[in-house]
Design goal:
5 strands, 319 residues, alpha/beta, five-stranded mixed β-sheet, 3 domains
């Protein structure tokens, strides 16, 4: 399961969307919404390049007498897209066209307000514009009134302090904590909180969604040396983290222990070197990033010493 599909599974539950809005959208209109009306919209449309957008998550919620739509762009952006605002503009136009085609407009036959929201989980902080206006060349006098205007709400997970997230009783904050966890104990503490919060029969589906996400996405990425069958519940995940992993560590039979430490040192060296490259050259290509992540610590050390004399990232790596 990809991160994209894992997030769509989780945010197909109204509890997640509720906590997303209440916990991370700091606007007065959120307090005026009737969260008992929150419902997922079945929406399917095809853009001009025939790319199907039917998997997008679109929710609507009552705001006064009208509906307000929350467009969740859950493609799990792990790289910065400089023209994300243009993509959002296209998606918003498709949504509005679909609402017109299906005659789902409000009482006054007006298009509903939409909150376009992008979740980002990359190592680098997001620096691309969140306003379309910043991507358009300045218009001559008289033409500026025709410039399209659009903004989207960006949630860059790396910008939230762990201590702030841990102090919230919020499902999305717990998800962000799991994403940024570094040890099995970090994961265990958050899973224990989820068990306390999701303890009613009505929340069975969401508990299963978190269990699937832990099995298919989180644990393989965070604890790659573990060989485990899929857990059937969050309780099994918590028990494993509390007992099994700890026992394996004490007995010294956790496979790849030494290799894991070596890989950790290599990953840290690669991460620091990529930051140096970014400072000197700006964003580097995917090929350059892949070569650095596969390089030995010795090669990275050599390149670091030569970086100030280099003219291009490619030339440095081929030196």
């Amino acid at each position: 399961m990809s991160h994209d599909n894992g997030y769509k599974l989780l945010f197909s539950h109204p509890e997640m969307v509720t906590d997303l809005l209440r916990g991370f959208v700091k606007e007065e209109w959120v307090n005026q919404c009737d969260f008992t009306t929150l419902e997922k919209v079945s929406c399917s449309y095809v853009s001009d390049d025939l790319r199907d957008r039917e998997d997008d998550l679109i929710w609507r919620i009552r705001w006064g007498d009208e509906w307000l739509y929350v467009y969740l762009l859950l493609e799990f952006q792990s790289t910065v897209d400089h023209f994300m605002a243009v993509r959002i503009l296209g998606y918003l136009a498709l949504l509005y066209q679909d609402l017109i085609r299906t005659e789902k407009l409000g009482k006054q036959h007006l298009l509903p307000p939409v909150l376009p929201l992008v979740l980002y989980n990359g190592e680098r902080r997001w620096q691309a514009p969140v306003d379309l206006d910043a991507l358009i060349y300045p218009a001559p006098a008289g033409l500026e009134k025709f410039r399209p205007k659009l903004s989207f709400l960006l949630l860059d997970q790396g910008c939230f302090a762990i201590q702030d997230l841990s102090g919230l009783q919020n499902l999305v904050a717990a998800l962000f904590q799991l994403e940024r966890s570094r040890t099995d104990n970090d994961i265990r503490q958050v899973v224990r909180k989820l068990l306390n919060w999701l303890n009613s029969a009505e929340q069975d589906s969401l508990r299963r969604a978190f269990t699937v996400w832990c099995n298919r996405v989180l644990l393989p990425r965070k604890l790659p040396n573990l060989d485990f069958t899929e857990f059937k519940s969050l309780q099994e995940v918590e028990t494993m983290l509390a007992e099994t992993v700890q026992g394996w560590k004490k007995e010294g039979i956790l496979q790849g222990r030494q290799e894991g430490r070596q890989e950790g040192r290599q990953e840290e060296a690669a991460k620091l070197f990529l930051l140096l490259l970014d400072s000197k050259f700006g964003a580097v290509s995917q090929d350059v990033q892949a070569k650095i992540r596969q390089a030995s610590p010795e090669d990275i050390e050599k390149w670091t010493k030569q970086i100030f004399q280099a003219e291009t990232p490619e030339g440095l790596l081929n030196s």
